[in-house]
Design a protein that fits this description.
Chain lengths: 145, 140
């Protein structure tokens, strides 16, 4: 079983396909769950804890907007843990907490520089593309050891 | 550790959220279930959820999609009932991907049957000669 980071990290389709094929999908909700289940005075994840900016600073400089550093506090440990990644290229699917373009650029850059197997795809728009999409993901995941 | 998951059904599926809920009740696991318009939210101990996920997927393997959720169902920090209505954070991604689910279901079905995958035609840049021809056609 390989730890596969999916991007966008909130993607249901990618996470489902990864877990279907018997691997572990690294998604942001698992990171949020760790914070929700850790009871403390700071009542995370609505508030940043003093530890979060420190984690974010490991990936982005102090003059980078705090939103990027806050997001990187969640995405950074996932990138470090990942043994492979599936990335959706287009930005139309990055919604909600993944709606920060600079964080998306930084995350994709860090994944590429990590030198792990990466599969880059676009979301399908018709039947033929969907077949290729699922087939490519299956082939990629079967090739991981 | 307690784990929460979304179970989302594709638009092409004949399975209703109530069918999934009934299946979970039948399994006898101690799991909280919340029915929603797009599927169900399940919350329980990790081992119970793992078994349940496999059972749910078996109902309609190509049309049921499962995703992790950070917050438990009805959490006051996310539940619309406590926040004065409006879409819950995270809804937009599910809404976006729900539209693609019928395509993914077809892709999974085709992959299961090992159907031949068509290779898209490669887009080539027109040659200089072809561009000259186009210019002549346009301006002559």
């Amino acid at each position: 079983m390989v730890k596969v980071m999916v991007y966008p990290p909130t993607s249901m389709i990618l996470a489902d396909l990864v877990e279907r094929m018997g691997h572990e999908a690294l998604v942001v909700s698992k990171e949020v769950r760790k914070k929700v289940n850790t009871i403390g005075l700071d009542s995370p994840p609505l508030n940043m804890t003093p530890e979060d900016p420190k984690k974010g600073l490991k990936y982005a400089a102090v003059d980078v907007p705090s939103g990027v550093r806050g997001r990187m506090a969640l995405f950074g440990p996932m990138i470090e843990e990942a043994n492979a990644a599936i990335v959706i290229k287009g930005n139309s699917c990055t919604l909600g907490c993944t709606g920060c373009a600079r964080t998306n650029e930084l995350t994709r850059f860090l994944l590429r520089t990590k030198r792990i197997p990466i599969l880059e795809l676009d979301y399908p728009t018709d039947d033929a593309e969907a077949k290729r999409f699922v087939h490519k993901i299956r082939q990629f995941l079967e090739g991981l050891k | 550790m307690r784990v929460t998951k979304y179970v989302v059904t594709s638009q092409d599926s004949d399975v209703l959220p109530s069918d999934i809920a009934m299946k979970i009740y039948e399994s006898g696991h101690e799991i909280n279930i919340k029915e929603t318009c797009f599927g169900v939210i399940i919350d329980g101990e990790e081992d119970d959820i793992k078994e349940t996920v496999n059972e749910i997927r078996a109902i309609d393997p190509n049309n049921i999609f499962i995703k992790d959720r950070g917050f438990p169902p009805g959490d006051s920090r996310r539940c619309r009932g406590y926040r004065g209505g409006g879409a819950r954070p995270g809804f937009y991604m599910i809404e976006y991907e729900s539209k693609i689910l019928p395509l993914i279901s077809q892709g999974l079905a085709s992959d299961e049957l090992d159907e031949e995958i068509s290779v898209p035609e490669e887009k080539k840049r027109p040659s200089v000669e072809r561009i000259e021809e186009l210019i002549k056609e346009e301006f002559s």
